[in-house]
Design goal:
With 312 residues, the chain is an all-alpha fold. Helices cover 67% and strands 3% of the residues. Helix 9 runs antiparallel to helix 12. It is globular and about 75 Å long.
Length: 312
């Protein structure tokens, strides 16, 4: 309310009853939920909806086919399918060996970079440059490098190590999965190295200094201080690598053999077949891969939680 007297204005505060009521503030948890709601809705629709559709189709839910029936036939057929039985050991070998080698190499690279001087930033950037390369591009590079007509075979022939293309070992499109493992290690070892480098900057220097003051040598500091501090984050990264290696199909599809092949490739072949009655088998394989990866994640979370409670 404003009153005018001559040329001067005098502002008078409004009466108490006319003041605007203060807006009630939402709790902090409610504000965070509202801010995350758009992204969570998208995730719920596409992820939860996709998983639900996969599970439903694995039980035979095919409304586009006349006379469909819900049953466990697709899961029962998995154990009698020779392609699935042959793919199980190959999938386990590719995922397990890739994860192990990538973890060991990534930690070794991180520890090596940590000891560098001025070149540490440059080497870290070079190591992390592969993170932006898609796996599909990496698979094509491995095909050009390791195939019997690739660069290594040509170098071997030029140096007189082989007398022809047939003398070079078949590193791609074989039943061992060598090229698949090589691509996963090349791509995922830098990822684990970056995670390990981030963990190495969380007060490990002070702990190592305390261990040194107590008489610990370099090996004892590594075994009793550095590696235990790296174990939780590196193990979490290794779980992600294992889940990806067990569920990815593009790299085994390009670098693996037609038979035996990995479970994701078998699922893709069944899904893309012209016979729509094989669709539940493909979905059952996808569910099996998802359940296996989820079990690995739960084991990791339970182990980390138990170790954290023991440490506290």
């Amino acid at each position: 309310m404003t009153t005018s007297t001559g040329d001067s204005d005098t502002s008078v505060p409004p009466p108490q009853g006319m003041r605007r009521a203060a807006r009630p503030r939402l709790p902090r948890a409610a504000r965070i939920a509202l801010l995350l709601a758009p992204a969570l809705i998208v995730v719920a629709v596409f992820f939860v909806g996709g998983v639900s559709q996969t599970i439903a189709q694995s039980f035979g839910y095919q409304p586009y086919l006349p006379g469909y029936q819900l049953s466990f036939d697709a899961y029962a057929a998995l154990w009698s399918d020779p392609a699935v039985r042959a793919s199980l050991p190959l999938t386990a070998r590719v995922a397990g060996v890739s994860t192990l080698l990538a973890t060991v190499l990534g930690v070794a690279v991180a520890l090596t970079i940590r000891g560098l001087g001025r070149s540490r930033t440059t080497v870290t950037a070079v190591v992390g440059s592969t993170l932006a390369v898609p796996h599909l591009v990496g698979a094509v590079c491995m095909l050009l490098l390791l195939s019997q007509s690739g660069l290594l075979a040509r170098f071997g022939y030029a140096l007189g190590l082989t007398s022809g293309r047939a003398d070079f070992p078949a590193l791609t499109n074989n039943g061992v999965g060598f090229a698949i493992i090589a691509e996963y290690v090349w791509k995922e070892a830098p990822f684990i190295a970056v995670i390990a480098l981030a963990a190495l900057g969380r007060g490990i220097d002070e702990l190592e200094g305390a261990a040194t003051s107590l008489g610990a040598d370099r090996r004892q500091r590594l075994v009793h201080v550095t590696l235990p501090m790296l174990a939780p984050p590196v193990a979490g990264a290794a779980v992600l690598v294992f889940a990806f290696a067990a569920g990815s199909y593009e790299v085994p599809y390009l670098l693996g053999s037609p038979y035996p092949t990995t479970l994701p490739v078998v699922a893709f072949q069944s899904y893309s077949a012209t016979d729509l009655t094989t669709r539940p088998t493909a979905m059952a394989i996808a569910v099996m891969i998802t359940v296996t990866s989820s079990v690995v994640v739960l084991v990791y979370l339970a182990t980390v939680g138990r170790l954290a409670r023991r440490a506290s």
